[in-house]
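Here's my example:
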Amino acid sequence: QVQLVESGGGLVQAGGSLRLSCAASGRTFSSYVLGWFRQAPGKEREFVAAISWSGGRTSYADSVKGRFTISRDNAKNTVYLQMNSLKSEDTAVYYCTADRNWLPSLYEYWGQGTQVTVSS
C-alpha cells in the first residue's frame, strides 16, 4: 500500500513558477514509477509527466515539455514537479500517482490532488 500526499499548489501569475511535492508512505518507494496527472474544470484527467524507479527515465506530455521538470528523491520518498513559464491553461488540480510499471494505462495509487491556479 502506498499513500501519496501532494503539496505546493497555489495561485500564481502567468509566466511564474511553482514546485509541487508529493510525499509517499512505505519503505518500497524506489519500487514505484511516479507520475503527475492533472484535471482542469470540465475536462478529462490528463497525463503530465512520469519518472522511472531510479529517476533515469522521464516522460512528459507535449503541452509541458521544456517547461515542467519531474524529479524524485528516493531517500526522502518524495517526487517533485517543477513548473516554469506557467500558462492559464495549466490551471488544474494536479494529482500524484504511483505504479510498479512504466507508463501503465491506469496508475494503481493516487493522491488527493492539489489545486494550481494560473492567473492571466
Remarks:
- The CA atoms of residues 25 and 57 lie 22 Å apart.
- The mean pLDDT is 96.
- The two ends are 40 Å apart (CA to CA).
